[in-house]
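Researcher: Please generate the 3D structure of the following complex. Treat every line as part of one assembly.
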Amino acid sequence: MNLPIYLDNNATTPMDPRVLEAMLPYFNAKFGNAASRNHAFGWAAEEGVDYAREQVAKLIGANEKEIIFTSGATESDNLAIKGVFEMYKEKGNHIITCVTEHKAVLDACKHIEKLGGSVTYLPVKSDGLIDLAELEAAMTEKTILVSIMHANNEIGVIQPIKEISAIAHKYGALYMSDSTQTVGKIPVDVNADGIDLMAFTAHKMYGPKGVGALYVRRKNPRVKVTAQMDGGGHERGMRSGTLNVPGIVGLGKACELCRLEMGEDAKRLSKLRDKLQVSLTELEESYVNGNVEHRLPHVANISFKYVEGEGLMMAMKDLAVSSGSACTSASLEPSYVLKSLGLSDDLAHSSIRFGLGRFTTEEEVDFAIKQTKHAVNHLRDLSPLWEMFKEGIDLDKIEWAEH
Amino acid sequence: MAYSEKVIDHYTHPRNVGTLDKSSSKVGTGLVGAPECGDVMRLQIEVDDKHMITDAKFKTFGCGSAIASSSLATEWLKGKSIDDAMKIDNMDIVEELALPPVKIHCSVLAEDAIKAAINDYRVKNGMEALESAKSHH
Ligand SMILES: Cc1ncc(COP(=O)(O)O)c(C=O)c1O
Ligand code: FES
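Model: Done. Output below.
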């Protein structure tokens, strides 16, 4: 077992060696520009891209013509939201999203508001799921797009996207899903799930960084987005720029491996995740954040009350995890996702996200359990709040210095 | 961002962790920060008749730099008079621990805790409180 142990697979995943192998020829031998139609170098590159497009489409039940390659999920989110807003201006100017979305979606929506659009940010319930009745109540004639993520990156909670897309369609709006955390991890089928646009990225599924895709539906209905990057008219005019051929080939291979292996991976990882969660919640005053039934199989977000996340991570020195604590960020605000579940700030500061992945072993999980327990106990020995809690002092009744 | 060796040393082997009897007239207690802000520091000093600090203890809920800052503070406090202790500046802590700019407020918190502890002792013993905490983040 090598230390440190990587348990931050929601941030990014290591590349699968098989993906790297598939990519390598496209850096040198097959270096051509996929848009060069007149020679063998171009054809070889184009062939690689075409094959990747099929591999990607197959994973999500799409047609390969519906795949637009981008630089990643951030770009895909932006293209979908801004592109739909521009393209469907005549029809309406209202977009619905939710407060736990990734910044790429939230900030694209902020941009829409600056352009005169109107955006509804749905709250979430304490388990992280949106309320479908609230969604339906927010729909208007002017609603052109509902953008609700598939699974959340911090807590792994999976939204009921079939029901959400049905509501969007009932009111004539498109449904867009940021599926960055789910594609390649759990089954996603654009037709069965009623998805019109979908963002995802290679580096969350054992592929390379800097490449992703936007699924854009071509039939029932035919969806169009206005390009946000103008130029040579690549990707059916929706995203110009010379294609990142090795990256795209890597995304394709990553999708193929996920299609073949995600069932097994998910089964194995959910067992390990459950083991981790059961052991760690044996610690007093530890709480799992978010719905545990509708949740990605490889994620557990746990708050260890009375210890602060960054301090805790420092004691978990052989584990690479992440925390919702403000001390880990430049701002002094703890995670907005955890806060929107209604978590008090101190619980948000005390949270640790464990994200398992394809290469996580049981031995590593056992080690992680041991080191985390040790760290929590060590930090609690240092914590004045833990001492007060143990003495039965009600921390809410203390007048803390204002900030 | 990597931590300095000194931060890691204080964090891994914190000095003077513990609790003094806060009801004693010889003990000054400073409790600063707030759980919602992710940092709470409790620093206590025990002072003799000559106003010399004979013992210091801390407990901190916060990041590694906050824990290291308070551990260092207790080391510095022991053996100082309360007047000299009042002169400890957060920038001394920043320098000693090589804290990066984003962690300066952790040292400010330690300075606040020192001042709060001294003032608590002063007020308990019939002296007026001195300039209050430097700032809040
Ligand atoms: C839900 C979600 N959306 C979007 C992104 C951004 O993806 P990318 O890094 O490919 O731009 C991420 C990853 O950070 C994510 O988790
Ligand atoms: S206590 Fe929050 S950054 Fe140090």
